[in-house]
Amino acid sequence: MPTAPAEPTGAPPRRRLGGYRDLVDVPGFGRLAVVGMASKLPAGMTGLGLLLLVGRDHSYGAAGLAVSGSAIGQGLTAPLRGRLIDRRSPRLVLLGCLTGYLTAVAALVTAVRGHGPFAVVLALSAALGATAPPVAVMMRTVWHRATGTRTLATAMALDSAMTGAALISGPLLASWLSMSVSPVAPFVAVALLTAGAVALLVGLLGAPSVPSCPARTRHRLGPPASAPLRRLLAADALFVAAVTGIDVILPRYAQEYDAAAYTGLYLGALSIGSVLGGLALGALPALPPGGSRLPVLLGVFAAGAGALAVAARCSPTVVLLVCPLAGLVIGSAFAALRTIGGDLAPRGRVTETMSWLSSLDMAGGAVGAAVFAYVAAAEGSRTAFLLVPAVVVAAALLGRRIRVGAASPRP
Questions:
Q1: Helices in 206-329 by DSSP H: which ranges?
Q2: Which pTM value belongs to this model?
Q3: How many CA atoms lie within 13 A of 293 on its CB side?
Q4: Residues 251-294 pLDDT 10s
Q5: C-beta atoms surrounding 201 within 10 Å
């Protein structure tokens, strides 16, 4: 696996786009970038692909339940898979997960196409999530080990931008394959992309190594035993709840104010703003440490969410214009949370820490979707918009209490 180059002493100030220039110079950057993007696309395709596949033979509500089952299966098992990677051979864990995942894909497609009982479809959907190879999570660990202090923030910004791009392109690709080719086609593509990403990452990892987490550093609770990490996980959950809340409120707002045609444009503009903002932040000539950057980013996001609440009281067109601004730092905040997570991770437990963050993403998203959907339906979308900045401010206050300097050194 590539290792971080030594940081030169007395290095000259970084030039414009210097972060990306330095990142490109990291050994193996091209392969890292390819694996990173390949690891993101399956997650962007699976949800909609599963919805369209199951929805052809079952009710739309049942299809949504299958998607939820897959997310729950993945969220509940992510820390365990991360712990196994840190304690065992990453290659064996990745290949074992891939075997189970491909088996679950084949069984799920067979059950749906064979009009099997929905209980079986639901169980296989959960198995699909539970066996998903944690390539995207592992890539964050690889970036941490391959980059130095000058390039880590840029690498996390790029990783976050890739995630945002996959969340835009993945559903589009899944929808096109399902409608133009076959409902099974998205899962063929997902299986091939996942297998390819695992193969590339296994090659990147090199020969099997000893467990990176020494027995004397292990704690039964894992990373949540650390108070700073608990604050980070809570801030992450609140942040994702707020982001998901905006995603849920915008369609309701469009429906309430006769602007249904704007629904896709709202969500697309929000995502594009996030991707462009993340890339722009990574290009800055100097980035402050993740610990000091997080409260600032969350504060900017709170201001953007507040602007969105004000725009909602004007007109649907004004909301559309504000959406890119509201999403400008979403990707950057995700990147900062991952950067801090890697810095706070106990020695040899970076992957498990990243897996906990992924699980809290899903938990925060589920709670945010439920709460904000309820408020929007009961009190109206404009009232629901007003709650988003309050949730973000709570996340920012938690972020201010995180001290990265006391963290264990990165492996």
A1: 227-256, 263-282, 290-311, 316-326
A2: 0.77
A3: 20
A4: 889 989 998 888 888 888 888 888 888 777 766 655 554 557 78
A5: 26
